Amino acid sequence: MKLFDIVKQKNINKSRQLPFIFVLWLVSFFALANEPIVIGETLIIDSKILMKKASINIRLPVSYQALEQKRYPVYFKLGTDEDFASTAGTLHELSHNQEDPMPETIFVSLTTETAVSIINRGVKSEDFINFLETDVIPYIDKHYRTQPFRILASGERFGMAPLYGLIHKPKLFQAYIMMNPWITDASGLVSDFETFLKSNKDISAFLWLSVSGESRETQNHQKILSLLQQHAPQKLTWKSAQFDQYVSALSSALVSVFADRYLASDSPVISAGVQSIKSYYQQLSENKYGYAISSENAMRALGIAMFNKEQVKKAIEVFQINIKDYPDSPHVYAVMANVLTQDGDLTEALAMRKIASELATKQNNAYDSYYKQLYTDLKSKLSAK
Q: What is the pLDDT of residue 138?
């Protein structure tokens, strides 16, 4: 097996169609007959904003129970029960190996009942934001292992809420996703956004907007884009695209949010070596995310580049650093095993394969069966000698 097989396998996974992957996930993740399919759960919380009990849906990452010390970003979605499963499937597919092309996130959304309760108050964006700020976020932060990086996403009738949140609560979330938002003239958000952009030059956030070919508020969407083109602060990263399908829009948005975490294998940062990589991710951690961002993929790319140049010892040194930095990742052991196998040290390679397989199994990692097969094959090969 060649050293680049793991990277190649990931690219194959990315190319699959999301709806198909979601079905496969449900079948494989809950493969036992007569077992219920559990995608998430509904929580009942006390709401100061609604002045009654309120319900929210939550889905925890696959690795949440196994990695007891790990903390996760949180993805908040304004919507109803109808799209909870499809959104959960999209999040799972994009983070199925825990890191690439996005990290695992805790997923929180409104139930239909709660959404209706807020809508009955007049469909005001401030009600949605106040509900999240006062009731939901404190509850989630208290009861779950969260990172200080929150994404707020919504679309259509709820689509004005992320823009309102950016304008009026710019530190509550770090990324905002608006999918085909119905930004009405009555909301006054277009003029508010212009004032916000001109008076908040130090704002640091990510904003993603999509519009379909049949948007009800295309004119205001174009006004928003024009304001961004003219007045967006330097640290406000934004992107815009046109999508007719919700799943495609969400997938593209999430990949864009986390794009700076993943460097191309020929990136100057990677080519410059270990210290360059560590410096890049330290700055990214401190200036954008607010928590330590993994350099595992970049370090792996550096090691593979060295190995392909027949600098085997240097490659092994890089992979040893990766194992030390990320001892809970099955991938760092799998790649080290590849190097050792190519270098002829099959005994040590087998030890690495075993660790990779055990960690993948424990974490319910997407590469579980793949790493187990590699371990079994190498063990059989050594036994036959």
A: 98
Would 34 be classed as within a structural domain? no
Which CATH number do you get for residue 232?
Answer: 3.40.50.1820
Residue 77 to residues 113, 243, 375, Cα–Cα distance (Å): 15, 18, 40
- Cα 230 from Cα 259, distance rounded (Å): 24
Number of structural domains in the chain = 2
- The pLDDT, as a whole number, for residue 48 is 95
Q: Give yes or no: residues 270 and 192 share one domain.
A: no
235 in Cβ contact with 204 (< 8 Å): yes
Q: Is residue 83 part of a domain?
A: yes
Band of residue 14 on the pLDDT scale cut at 50, 70, 90: very low
Non-local (6+) Cβ contacts of 351 within 8 A are: none
Question: Do 220 and 148 belong to one domain?
Answer: yes
Which residue among 318, 335, 365 closes a domain? 318
Cα 376 to Cα 378: distance, rounded to the nearest angstrom: 6
**Domain range spanning residue 276?**
263-318
277 and 172 fall within a common domain:
no
Mean pLDDT of the chain: 87
SS (H, E, C) the chain: CCCCHHHHHHHHHHCCCHHHHHHHHHHHHCCCCCCCCCCCEEEEEEECCCCEEEEEEEECCCCCCCCCCCCEEEEEECCCHHHHHHHHHHHHHHCCCCCCCCCCCEEEEECHHHHHHHHCCCCCHHHHHHHHHHHHHHHHHHHCCEEEEEEEEEEECCCHHHHHHHHHCCCCCCEEEEEEECCCCCCCHHHHHHHHHHHCCCCCEEEEEEECCCCCCHHHHHHHHHHHHHHCCCCEEEEEEECCCHHHHHHHHHHHHCHHHCCCCCCHHHHCCHHHHHHHHHHHHHHHHCCCCCCHHHHHHHHHHHHHCCCHHHHHHHHHHHHHHCCCCHHHHHHHHHHHHHCCCHHHHHHHHHHHHHHHHHCCCCCHHHHHHHHHHHHHHHHCC
